[in-house]
Design goal:
This protein is an alpha/beta fold and 292 residues long. The chain folds into 2 domains: 117 residues, Glutathione S-transferase Yfyf (Class Pi), Chain A, domain 2; 159 residues, Rossmann fold (3-Layer(aba) Sandwich). The protein is built from 13 helices and 10 strands. The chain has a 4-stranded parallel sheet, sandwiched between helices. α2 runs parallel beside α12, α3 crosses α4 and α3 crosses α5. The two termini are 30 Å apart.
Amino acid sequence: MNYTLFLGCNIPARVQQYQDAALAVCKELDIGLTPIKEFMCCGYPMRNIDEFVFLLSAARNLALSEQRGEDLMVLCKCCYGSLKMAMFRLKEDPVILEKVNLVLAKENLVFKGLAGIKHFLSVLHEDVGLVKLKDHVKIKYKNLKIAASVGCHALRPAGITRFDNPALPTLFDDLVDLTGAKSVNWSKKSECCGAPLLGINDALSKNIMEKKLSNARQAGAHFIAVACPYSFLQFDSFQSRVAKESNDFQTLGAILYPQLLGLTLGIDSSILGIQRNQIDITSLESYLSPEA
């Protein structure tokens, strides 16, 4: 299995531990990754401002992956949703496609719509497969309960993203459960984390985040697991900030899925960047049990 690795903007700049943990997991699972230094923004920030610029930015990345003859593996849910949306729009509108390719031709690039777009979780669940993943697990968690926050942009619009059932998503639950942890049933697991509102309406962003965290705690979760840099920044960095401003705020540690999985594969916590999370999650290792 070989993919071009699309990191997006936020991960290298603000969530380096997601990149490090994902790369370590992929190495352990013999997943080949090709970094392309010419990759640029997925276009997400321009999606609702200038559609052509959005599509051009996304198409350039897709064209670069096509040159390699490999599918993209995307770590960010927002990048994943944007690239899938761009693929859909360019395939359905030949006029826009022609305009985009006229610009790409200046760099000897052409978008043909041949490259597949897969999220990191989809690669693990569908391409590697649950059976093979379980074979790689060396040590499991015991009595650990996880609230898996699915992420909005991967789920909707479902006909375009084709990530999971938006009404009843189970993919992330499957990946959590194979580690020996229990993915809890909670009503807000597929709702927005509030990150898109941060910096625009902080009070509303905080309110949405707190409701999700409260719902996860009520379901008995010890940690909340994510696989998106925006959700991680919301539940780790922003939650940490909120906790410092309020003496009675109860935190719920946020775990990146490759961190959760990586420990069961025998990868050292320092490589997974667990100590770099702002909210302390080092107690995660105490749930590991050879007998689980």
